[in-house]
Amino acid sequence: GGKIAQVLQTVNTGTETAGSATYVDITDFARTFTCEATSSKVLILVDLKGQGKAGYRWWWQLMRDSTAIYVSDAMAATGGNTFPSGGEGIEQWVAMYIDSPSSTSEISYNVEWKCQSAETLYLNRTYTNNVTAGGNTASSITCMEILA
Questions:
Q1: DSSP assignment, residue 16?
Q2: Are 90 and 125 within 8 A, CB to CB?
Q3: Beta partners for 12?
Q4: C-alpha 80: how far from its chain's center?
């Protein structure tokens, strides 16, 4: 037990956008995965980079198919992560989560995001898209099956 059976990754180098006050999938970011055994666990590593409008809160959640399995700390109604002023620096959001899907059917892992007042979020770029100041980058989601 405890051996890694497979590792699959999706890398997104695009500059995806979302302008929603309700959760929406990050485009071209999903990673489909099929476990070898129902007793397996899946380690999911998420590395997101991007930015939104200064002063606005943003939220994200890790999804297994249509179920939220890991929700950012920003979910408290009075709390939240707020983009800094200026709109020039790329923010990084990371997560590590161990899932127990209990299935050998194909599943999909993805990240959904939303922003306060439906302001636009940008993946892999700054809010102002000033390549000189912040540059563009890449984001990834990696899934590793761990045998029981």
A1: -
A2: yes
A3: 139
A4: 16
Centroid of chain to Cα 146: 21
How far does CA 128 lie from the centroid of its chain? 21
What are the DSSP E strand ranges found in the chain?
Answer: 4-12, 17-19, 24-25, 31-33, 41-52, 57-64, 67-71, 81-82, 91-99, 107-115, 120-123, 139-146
Residue type, 139: S
**Which of the four pLDDT bands, split at 50, 70 and 90, describes residue 77?**
very low
Instruction: Write down the pLDDT at residue 90.
Output: 78
**Which value, to the nearest 10 degrees, does the dihedral of the CA atoms of residues 19, 25, 27, 29 take?**
140
Q: pLDDT value at position 134?
A: 58
What is the C-alpha separation between 89 and 58, in angstroms, rounded? 16
Q: What is the pLDDT of residues 92-104, one digit of tens each?
A: 888 899 999 999 9
Distances (CA, A) of 101 to 7, 9, 69: 16, 18, 10
Retrieve residue 82's tokens: 């707020």
| Total-model pTM | 0.85
